[in-house]
Design goal:
Layout (H helix, E strand, L loop, with lengths): L3 E5 L1 E3 L9 E3 L2 H9 L3 E5 L5 H10 L2 E4 L23 H17 L3 E4 L1 H9 L4 E2 L9 E6 L1 E2 L4 H6 L5 E5 L3 E2 L6 E6 L5 E6 L5 E4 L3 H4 L4 H14 L2
Parallel strand pairs: 1-4, 1-5, 5-6, 6-14
Antiparallel strand pairs: 2-3, 7-11, 8-10, 9-12, 12-13, 13-14
Helix pairs in contact: 2-3, 3-4
Length: about 230
């Protein structure tokens, strides 16, 4: 039986082909999950923790999307830089889903904003604007990975070339996370949970190139493989 992979969705006021507001998710993530042999399940945003808990129990793995900036209030700070797409209700929803996934010790692939939310949900903080943003905003660059990390094992390399699209990054690392990948400027590019079976965060966008880059597709393949165990 194919595993169910939960994606926390987003609200949107409109989309082509729909008359009313919609619940959305990035298609590239769902495509990568399907190629890996999983079934993507979109959970609409909700404040009902019981709905989150029941959905988390029924699904086998989780993918957290990229997107707008996490509100600094979520990690106990005030806004000190220009931020984009802040949605505090989405922050709370995704943090709740993340904490359920962690508590259940189910496999997680957290991408870009999701990578940052993983850190925030566990008590870490963020850099609100990188001084080296030009090196990370819609660019391809190498990441150096620890050779025994989940990401290196999944991708089969310690120096993947990745598509990067962000201006924020992890500042203070949460106690339960380990840095396993960095950019040459020192930016944290990949983390993993120190005690969980397979909870991984990557600052780049593997879904963008997964259809042509086997190394990036293999992150989704490994997530689905773990979800089947």
């Amino acid at each position: 039986m194919k595993p169910l992979v939960l994606i926390p969705g987003r609200h949107s006021e409109q989309a082509a082909g729909h008359r009313t507001a919609v619940v959305t998710s990035g298609r590239l993530y769902a495509d990568a999950i399907e190629r890996a042999g999983g079934i993507a399940v979109i959970l609409p945003p909700t404040t009902d923790i019981d709905v989150v808990r029941q959905a988390a129990l029924r699904c086998d793995g989780f993918v957290f999307l990229g997107g707008g900036d996490v509100c600094p209030l979520t990690y106990g700070e005030q806004e000190t830089a220009r931020l984009y797409g802040v949605d505090e209700s989405l922050d709370q929803f995704e943090r709740n889903v993340m904490r359920e996934a962690i508590a259940l010790d189910k496999p997680v692939l957290a991408v870009c904003r999701g990578h940052q939310m993983l850190n925030v949900a566990l008590g870490g903080t963020l850099i609100q604007h990188l001084d080296t943003t030009e090196d990370h905003r819609d660019t391809m660059h190498e990441v150096e990975l620890l050779d025994d990390s989940h990401v290196a094992r999944a991708t089969g390399t310690t120096r993947p070339t990745v598509h990067s699209f962000h201006h924020q990054a992890i500042r203070q690392l949460a106690d339960d996370l380990q840095v396993v990948g960095t950019h040459e400027d020192g930016t944290i590019e990949a983390v993993q949970h120190i005690t969980a079976r397979w909870i991984v965060g990557v600052q780049w966008h593997p879904e963008d190139t997964a259809h042509v880059d086997p190394q990036q597709q293999q992150l989704f393949d490994e997530l689905v493989r773990r979800a089947q165990q």
